[in-house]
Design a protein that fits this description.
By secondary structure, this protein is an alpha/beta fold. It has nine helices and six strands; from the N terminus they run H-E-H-E-H-E-H-H-E-H-E-E-H-H-H. It has a six-stranded mixed beta sheet, with helices on both faces.
Length: about 260
């Protein structure tokens, strides 16, 4: 067994178990862009988890390389006889027509399509390939933008999409460097989105400039951000439970008075 692969599989298995992300009954739809994160997730579910699943790929039509990304996903699925659905959209035009920012419109459209194909293939769970670094970046970005305390909780590891369909993120325990090492060890092709290196975008500036600068002085900065966001999430969850209990007690008291 390959050393890096075994280590990563054990890490993902533990994270899934700790966070109750996947049950034996779940049929899964994996969102695969062709990038390193989603190709690792696809390989893990295919080779290790060995569950009933289908693959969804959205070609946004934004970059010239978009069809190369699509081909990487299609080739992997074809070679391994995996059910794969491709959706092609002109997101730039659609966002302009809707008078929305490209980033927000693209995200909204992705989740609409996740729901569409989850329902079509009778999937109870959609998996996306957000990693630990993206979670750290999200917390830092929300802090810089002055978001409320919810923004400091980071990306939720699991949330309801609609009805009995959920979205889960099983590789948020992995850093980017671990993902790249895994792909190299298993000789898995993946796409590189050059726009992710454009530091004119705030998130990319945080990723490539701000966080490395802080970590040069405080190497565990990212891990501290993750720990703090977990603590905030727990506090908010506890506060929400207490509020819910108070509301239920209020209803009970009201029923007693009415009775």
């Amino acid at each position: 067994m390959k050393k890096i692969t075994l280590k990563i599989w054990n890490k993902i298995d533990k994270f899934i178990k700790e966070n109750n992300l996947i049950s034996n009954k779940d049929k899964i739809l994996i969102a695969v862009s062709g990038g390193p994160d989603s190709m690792l997730l696809l390989h893990y579910i295919h080779k290790k988890a060995k569950r009933d699943f289908a693959v969804f790929h959205l070609n946004h039509g934004i970059r010239k390389e978009a069809f190369k990304d699509e081909k990487i996903v299609k080739d992997y699925c074809k070679k391994n006889e995996i059910e794969c659905v491709i959706e092609r959209l002109d997101i730039l035009r659609m966002a302009k027509d809707a008078k929305e920012s490209l980033e927000n419109f693209a995200r909204k459209k992705r989740y609409e399509l996740f729901l569409k194909y989850a329902e079509k293939y009778k999937c109870s769970l959609v998996l996306t390939a957000h990693n630990m670094d993206e979670n750290i970046e999200t917390v830092v970005l929300n802090l810089l933008r002055g978001k409320d305390i919810k923004g400091l909780c980071g990306i939720p590891v699991k949330r309801k999409l609609k009805g009995k369909i959920w979205v889960a993120r099983p590789i948020m325990c992995l850093k980017k460097e671990e993902i790249i090492d895994y792909l190299k060890e298993n000789k898995i092709k993946y796409a590189v989105d050059k726009t992710n290196y454009d530091t004119d975008y705030t998130r990319n500036w945080i990723r490539h400039k701000l966080i490395p600068m802080i970590e040069s002085k405080q190497p565990n900065f990212g891990l501290h951000i993750i720990d703090i966001s977990k603590q905030i999430r727990k506090m908010m969850s506890k506060a929400g439970s207490e509020k819910s209990n108070d509301r239920e007690k209020g209803l009970e008291n009201r029923e007693e008075r009415i009775g």
